[in-house]
């Protein structure tokens, strides 16, 4: 599942933070974290205010180029062609410089890995739930005759709330409730396979959450990031 510790230290291939360098023998999952960019339907999550500023500056440069070009073609402005071309090239390079970092977030960040190999880039969110379950079930089946540790870190109920069509609209608590119900079903499937393989009475099962709800996550007036009771975050 979700590792969220990244991979590299000094070079892009050293994989010093990879699960296989921290005691695990097998890994299938997401080395980074879920972002809105992975779904492609919500506002960008990475440096949104900064990206908005970059877009504004890009639009200003484009407007300046078009104004100079129109003025030149209509003889309203006496501008050297070299200046217009130079400004256009600078604007293009400026756009490429920041868009190469933020425009391909889905491709660079939203990936699934199997051990050290990339399994999906970008990952298919519609299939990631079933793929993770299949991997977990397969792991249990392969290791049922010896002691094993299986850590399943769900992408649920992290925003964006990736919920398969089967569970959408099932909860009276909106999309967050749907996501919780799907996670509950996934846990049930893992318990079923443990029972089926005769491991129920010899297996310790721990269910835990890594942090509280994300109270900042909204869509309009709808709360997307859960509920923390009297606690702040």
Describe this protein's structure:
- This protein is mainly alpha-helical and 233 residues long.
- It contains six helices and five strands.
- It has a three-stranded antiparallel beta sheet, with no helix packed on it.
- Helix 2 packs antiparallel against helix 3 and helix 5 packs parallel to helix 6.
- The longest helix is centred in the first third of the chain and has 26 residues.
- It is elongated and about 85 Å long.
- The two termini are 23 Å apart.
- The model has no long low-confidence stretch (mean pLDDT 86).
Quick overview of this protein structure:
The chain has helices spanning 36-39, 48-73, 81-102, 105-109, 125-143, 174-196, and strands spanning 28-29, 112-114, 117-120, 218-219, 222-223. With 233 residues, the protein is mainly alpha-helical.
Report on the biggest sheet.
3 strands, antiparallel
**Number of helices, counting only DSSP H or I runs of 4 residues or more:** 6
Low-pLDDT windows of residues: none
Radius of gyration: 24 Å
Mean pLDDT: 86
